[in-house]
Structure formats: structure tokens, C-alpha cells
Amino acid sequence: SMEQGQKMKGPKRPREPRYEFKTRSEVDVIDDGYKWRKYGQKPVKSSPHPRNYYRCTTANCPVRKRVERSIEDPGLIVTSYEGTHTHPKINRPKNSSGVGWTSNEFEGPQDLWSQVQN
What we know:
Elements: E1 18-24, E2 36-42, E3 51-56, E4 64-69, E5 76-82, H1 110-117
């Protein structure tokens, strides 16, 4: 017998590994080389800064990220990534000197991308 108000749910998806980064930044949106679409925002208890939710815009890519300001230090942005990208990066992060980029990562039209952004 089902209890009142409970819905039948399918098997739970296994949780993807979550990675958390803290970055000192004045701006809330940090360019990490991927394109994101914001799909939600939630107030955070005891913080004037909301938590923002994003998903990767590439088709069938399961990655999501949460971005919020640290309660202890509002100068820090806490970004949590969940999942693994199923595709190469779309653009180089700004201020990247190319260090740490491996040859299997997308080296495509970032010149075009930088023109679009400027």
C-alpha cells in the first residue's frame, strides 16, 4: 500500500562524481571553456547571494554546475561540477596562455569565438 502523497519513482540514477572549485572573482560567471545555460536559481540560507544552476549546452552532455558565493568569504566563488563532458572544450578560457591544453582538446575556431565575444 502506497502512503498518501508518494509518487512511484524509477530506479535512482547513480550520482556522478562532483568536483568543487573555489575561485576568487568579482564576477559570478567564470569562463571555463564550455557553454552553459542557466536553468535555475535558489536563495541560500544565511547568504545574500543566490545559488545558480547551469547545464552544458552541448547535446546529450550530462554535465551540470552549481555556482554560489562562499558564505564565509563573499570574494570567493564556489563552483561544483557534476558529471563528465562527453565532448571537447568549445573555447579557451580567457587569460589562458594555452598551458595545460592537450592535443586531444578542441583547437578549433577560437579566433572566431574571441571575435564573437568582443
